[in-house]
Amino acid sequence: MLRSQYTVTRPVYSDDSFAIDHEKVFRLRKTPLDKVKEYLTCDSKRIKNVVLSLLPIIGWMRIYRIKEWLLGDVVSGVSTGLVAIMQGLAFSLLASLPPSYGLYTAFFPVLTYFFLGTSRHISVGSFPVLSLMVGAVVTRLVPEVGPSANITGFDNLTMYEKRVVVASSLTFLMGIFQLAMGLLQVGFIVVYLSDTLVSGFTTAAAVHILVSQLKFVLGLEVPGISGPLSIIYTLEENFVQITSTNICDLVMSIIIMIVVFIAKELNDKYKAKLPVPIPIEVIMTIISCGLSYGFNFEKRFGVSIVGKMVSGYESPIAPSIEVFQESAVEAFPIAIVGFAVAFSVAKVYSIKHDYTIDGNQELIAFGVSNIFGASFRSFAASTALSRSAVQESSGGRTQIAGLISALMAMVVTLALGFLLEPLPRSVLGALVIVNLKGMLMQFREIPYLWRRDKTECVVWLGTCIGAILLGLDLGLGVGLGIELLTVVFRTQFPRCSVLASIAGSDLYKDRKDYVELYEPQGVKIFRIPSPIFFANIDFFKDKLIEAVGFNPLRVLRKRNKALMKIKAMWQKRDVNITEKGMWDLFLQMTDESQMKPSETASELKGLPFKVCWNAELPACISVPRVDIHSVILDFSAVSFLDISALKGLKAMLKEFIHVDVNVYIASCDVYILETLHSCMFFDDEIHTSMFFPTIHDAMLHVLETRKDINTGCVSHQRKQPSDIEIQSTAVLDPDPAVEVETSPLSPC
Amino acid sequence: MLRSQYTVTRPVYSDDSFAIDHEKVFRLRKTPLDKVKEYLTCDSKRIKNVVLSLLPIIGWMRIYRIKEWLLGDVVSGVSTGLVAIMQGLAFSLLASLPPSYGLYTAFFPVLTYFFLGTSRHISVGSFPVLSLMVGAVVTRLVPEVGPSANITGFDNLTMYEKRVVVASSLTFLMGIFQLAMGLLQVGFIVVYLSDTLVSGFTTAAAVHILVSQLKFVLGLEVPGISGPLSIIYTLEENFVQITSTNICDLVMSIIIMIVVFIAKELNDKYKAKLPVPIPIEVIMTIISCGLSYGFNFEKRFGVSIVGKMVSGYESPIAPSIEVFQESAVEAFPIAIVGFAVAFSVAKVYSIKHDYTIDGNQELIAFGVSNIFGASFRSFAASTALSRSAVQESSGGRTQIAGLISALMAMVVTLALGFLLEPLPRSVLGALVIVNLKGMLMQFREIPYLWRRDKTECVVWLGTCIGAILLGLDLGLGVGLGIELLTVVFRTQFPRCSVLASIAGSDLYKDRKDYVELYEPQGVKIFRIPSPIFFANIDFFKDKLIEAVGFNPLRVLRKRNKALMKIKAMWQKRDVNITEKGMWDLFLQMTDESQMKPSETASELKGLPFKVCWNAELPACISVPRVDIHSVILDFSAVSFLDISALKGLKAMLKEFIHVDVNVYIASCDVYILETLHSCMFFDDEIHTSMFFPTIHDAMLHVLETRKDINTGCVSHQRKQPSDIEIQSTAVLDPDPAVEVETSPLSPC
């Protein structure tokens, strides 16, 4: 096969000459102020859009096709309603609340979400992880043993009444946080909850849920414990009491878990052949309810049952400000987790059914729903993936299905609640546990992640272990911290490399990666493979020094010291002048004070002669050799540069320039160049002329400028190319050959 | 001037063909395990090095030149000693401790640092910011009013004795943290304290110090307040009591401040002409001491004086574990700040005097010094820039100067302390305040930073305001958090751009930046200007969709829907077959089930014919137009890629491939390619052949492959280039011209 050829002929460009040849557009960058102004602009069309986006129901109601969609919505609503009732009862146990409040949570938040939500398929209501997080606060402020927190109005309330006040106040605050975030348009923050983090977090939550349900399955009286390490104390309590296990509860739980597990596996396996999945949970609930009632489990075996349900709705309550103060730190992660879960589920369905959802509007919708729900004593609402899956798969098209499921919950609350009263709590616990399978299976991600990306594995483990040991709220914070640190770390410690040319091409590759590479003598190409900022500028400096093989600042100091010695020898006439050159030099030394050495670099310029540092110097003068004359920095991967990096870079460049090494920068981003200009990066030593569009341009420029220069000893008089240089060679005693270059037309 | 030409002729390379042409070195990357192993390797040379690095004194003692250096060290030690005594007294007021403990701090830590420290020029001892941070803990645990914290062994102690226990236990814990960090070799963490952060933090510290010294200057009895917003409460207390101001204190303070201020300005101005700077602070202290003693300020004006000094040293004490528990959260930032300050000062002098310091050894040295000092009741030691400047500028060459200054402090403690007893505390306060000038001047950085880099300005202000309002420890945490977030933000929201070719060259620039650019039809070059990770993969996806003008997933769905319609029309024979092609097609439709549409992309392949989506379709079928056939992603700035990004990128590439858009990736980093390989990025749709070394290679490849293809309607049979394609055109009723392409040799 004939390979196509790559042929390019064009001038060698520096960034400067490129700008001359190609007209550049002057772009006015938007300042943050402009963006704010733009954002606040207001006209009638915008107002209409805002109203539409605040009430998404208008959008989907207008296209609602009653004939085609209504039936599906009703069927879906009824199925979802059954699941929602079951989950409401079970998850209220996670929240350490009486089961009937779970029914409230399946009702109130749905009503407002119906109007405000942009997702048409999620089922709003309780979510196990969220319920558990609420439960942690509830048991902290109102423990079973010991005094409750000191909160006004708690005096005459029973424990459960207090707990409801705490849960609803917490939910109210969570709603405020969500609403505020929605109004501030900061819905994007969920991007920080990466898949890895969420996986680790939900796995930890599953472990917490499992442990919290043990007491129901075993029929024990274990008080709810919260705070760091609570999981260990809870396990300990369970084991201490294990001899008091209620055998009836345990047997019933095990049977239910096995049956439900098998039925679910069958559902999964024959997914394609079954018209609808077997509603095994509903069946088991009805059976155990019937058995418990028929054989009076409560009296006969001492089984703990759901008990008296609140029938009907209670009057709304105002949230307690004191609970706000006590739980603000926990309410924020709850708000974030609640939103993040709902948003991720909503996103899946919006992609599947091809409509758009709006993160900020979702925040507003959940915020309002939680505030509204909390006023009617329901607890934190989000969505559960399992319930939403039922709603979507059974034919739900819009939130009308959600509304119908809410009405089912209402019917149970108002009229049928008594039917559920004999249901043993252990059944609910067993159902919760058996549903954890998917979440616990996420442990399998550990070896997967370890093989692929160690850093991600650390994030997963850190989040999971942190959330298990410290509790879900703190654990989420720990996970986020680790995750953000990994980003900083990855940016901070990149792999630097020295590049070399692929002979005969314009390609430059890592010197260590290829066998046949060509590296022109005296030129180092150093690739900076990441953004430069305060935390890695010193790292790069060290790596560059390692790559070039000398520390320019050190070399400069040594040279200045050597210069002092040369001067001293000169003054003592300790130098045998063997050639005419040194005489010339001597004659020029009109002002001795000009030769006074100092620690600064400019001193080299003040001298009437130049010393060729790479030549042989007298034995008493030792200066590190500098084998290179040019350094090319490959900036193609430098995506930003901060002020610290800018200062450090400038200092570094100057150090090299002061030891007569030219520095060139290739493939620098346009925006970074603008920043450099605005931050006074350029001065009389650092010019824009050191910037080149590609490494090859820079390399050609280097080879071009070095071509006709004596490679033994070079002076860099770039600014005065027309100066006539007279080279003279002098020999200093006791050693031969110090080459000294003079430039008689220069001021000294 | 004749411009040099850039001429390159080489084959067009893809990354694959490049690898074939150029032999690659197989590199075994070190795993973290290898690095640990390497780190733990042990041989006699290493042991010698470890011992030498653990006892740096051996290093500099061996090169000590007694004749040349000793005099300088002694002179420097005496001057530094005077300053150290003054500062010790003054800074112990910041730590809310009796002044004599400041003298301990100027003595004990120096002794161990002498052996262990790698810096030869810093003066170890008290540091105002650190003293203030210790003071915050001291006043929290042992307030002037109200009960002390409940700590064993506190019962029979006076308030000051308790405070000394708290301060020394805190210092002990801080020493443990520093030592642990040193042994774990994590000294690098100070890089996170960027210049901006440190500037904001020390400015806030100066404000705190100023406020804390007000009470001494005004001669008021204000209790020490700690915790968030303490600065406001302290100011309030001062203003409430302002009528009780002690006029003698105030007048004396103002005079001292003015005199010292002027003398310091003069010192600065005539730096070159003065042999030594005027020791104005020592002079003023002696004068005010004399005046206070002579006129009995304490009795006559009620001035608060230093009072009874502890004469001699007390027996060592064990730290209190309970204080550890109470102050662990504060001890950590104190350890960090103490080390960071000392290290940054040490670095300045090490560069100036050309020796190396070792961050981890410094941590060990300060850790041991603080543990040792704390056992003898001294408080947190670091270094003060002002004192180190005295030590260095007055001729100190090694820590022998430090040792002599410590001996001076010992002499005062043991014998001369009584001379300082009449010194008014307001004098010490005034001296502290007048020395804040430099730190407070840092406020001038705000406008400087604002003009140059808004983000850095936010970090500065966030750190400063946070540290002022929340206290120094929390403020440091806030500042660090903001700073790390800025790194994430900068990486997360970069400026994406669409590139176009500079005609006649191999350069590609932002389309918006240049006037004359050439963009081949149907190709988009999209530059990803930053690393890709979980937080920005969706951002890039949105930007890419914006750049190409269509959402590939949406297009695919629409196409699949359209396909269903075409199939339905076909089955109803609602299609007028006007040309032979459609008959062929009909004859091939042997298996109708193959045409059952689904939501997946593979469905397109299962069909016996291909529809040309960009041609005119029947009116009832509407599919978004796709105007491009190739997307080139410029990866040159992608310095890392995490698993989330990898998954997202893979999904994104597949979406494009499924709508028949070729995706090419240019300038991908070698290491990223390795990651892609190890993470199963490649499959039957995504090949390594889509990687090219430069954009121009990719572009040439695109132009080459597209050259001979019918641009109206294209099928991508890249894998079967030898297949004979028969193009046939059919017209579907009611609209004309649906181009359908068949490939009779393909399996269906």
CA radius of gyration of chain A is 38 Å
**Protein structure class of chain A:** alpha/beta
Distance between the termini of chain A: 66 Å
How many H/I helical runs of chain A?
Answer: 30
Number of strands of chain A: 12
Strand order of the largest sheet of chain A: 5-4-6-8-9-10
What is the oligomer described by this structure?
Answer: homodimer
Task: Round the mean pLDDT of chain A to the nearest integer and report it.
Answer: 82
Which residue ranges of chain A are poorly predicted, with pLDDT under 50 across at least 5 consecutive positions? 577-607, 710-748
* Percentage of residues assigned to helices of chain A: 55-70%
Largest interface: A-B, 92 and 92 residues
Largest sheet of chain A: 6 strands, mixed
- Strand content of the residues of chain A, in percent? 5-15%
**Silhouette of chain A:** elongated
Keyword list:
three-stranded antiparallel beta sheet; disordered C terminus; 30 helices; 748 residues; alpha/beta
Question: What can you see in these coordinates?
Answer:
The structure is a homodimer of 748-residue chains. Chain A is elongated and about 115 Å long. In chain A, the strands form 3 sheets. A 6-stranded mixed beta sheet of chain A has the order 5-4-6-8-9-10. Chain A has a 3-stranded antiparallel beta sheet with strand order 7-12-11, covered by helices on one side. Chain A is α/β, with parallel strands linked by helices and 748 residues long. Chain A contains 30 helices and 12 strands. The first copy, chain A, is 56% helix and 6% strand. The model of chain A is unreliable at 577-607 and 710-748 (pLDDT under 50). In chain A, helix 12 packs parallel to helix 19 and helix 21 (445-452) runs antiparallel to helix 22. The interface between A and B is large, with 92 and 92 residues. Strand 1 of chain A pairs antiparallel with strand 1 of chain B, so a sheet runs across the interface.
